[in-house]
Amino acid sequence: MEELIQQLIKEGYLKTPEIIDAFFKIKRRDFLPAHLIGEESINAPLPIGHGQTISQPLTVAFMLELLEPQRGDKILDVGSGSGWQTALLAELVQEKGKVYAIERIPALKEFGEKNLNKYDYKNVEFFLGDGAKGLSQYAPFDKIIVAAASNDIPQVLVNQLRVGGRLVIPIGEALQDLVLIKKINDQEVEQTKYPGFAFVPLITDS
Asked: Catalytic residues per the record (predicted)?
């Protein structure tokens, strides 16, 4: 895995020292199903059951660099799955920050919580629910990151983002754009698209 991280640094996907340190500290193998341990250094998504995956390291690195998590941030992690990205975020926001992780599949919420318990983070709270609807009771968030593809940008998530905040979400069907949304004010956002990604679909109960 260290070789893969060095490769991601060399290729420019990992740039920020704090994100690089988090990648070294939070071991991807700790978030894999038992039968996949040993495959953590494969730079590809891996199945974690229920039609879901643990994301490709390159993609997680790219998304975190776009998100720009900072110490003290309040972050909504939509589709927390294995918990790997959740743990990376917990490390990045540190003890004064908070990560709200939401997962719609009960077995995966439990899997992610169990995996995160291998580390000593007190700044993460897991929720079972429809991530496409966010967590309005804890809004506004400094940052929101979505690990599944939506057909369009969920306005409800934009509404739960503070002014000046960032939302990173894949948009599209067969092949998606990663979209970075910066909230300028309550009526205006700025969008930047990065094409060529593939995610599982974002499922909403509505």
From this structure: 55
- pLDDT tens-digit readout, 34-92: 999 999 999 999 999 998 999 999 999 999 999 999 999 999 999 999 999 999 999 99
Angstrom distance (rounded) from CA 52 to CA 198: 12
Active-site residue, selected from the candidate residues 41, 55, 80, 150: 55
Confidence (pTM)? 0.96
Q: How many CB atoms lie within 10 A of CB 188?
A: 9
Closest CA to 135 of 85, 185, 101, 87: 101
Element housing 114 (H / E) = helix 106-116
DSSP classification of residue 79: S
* Inter-residue contact 64 to 92 (CB < 8 Å): yes
Give residues with Cβ within 8 angstroms of 113, minimum separation 6.
83, 126
Residue 5 has pLDDT above 80, yes or no: yes
173 vs 4, 28, 124, 202, CA distance in Å?
28, 27, 31, 10
Amino acid at 199: F
Provide the pLDDT confidence category of residue 178 given band limits of 50, 70 and 90. very high
Q: Specify whether 55 is catalytic.
A: yes
Angle at 154 between CA 82 and CA 138, to 5 degrees: 65
Task: Tell me the domains of the chain and their CATH numbers.
Answer: 2-197 (3.40.50.150)
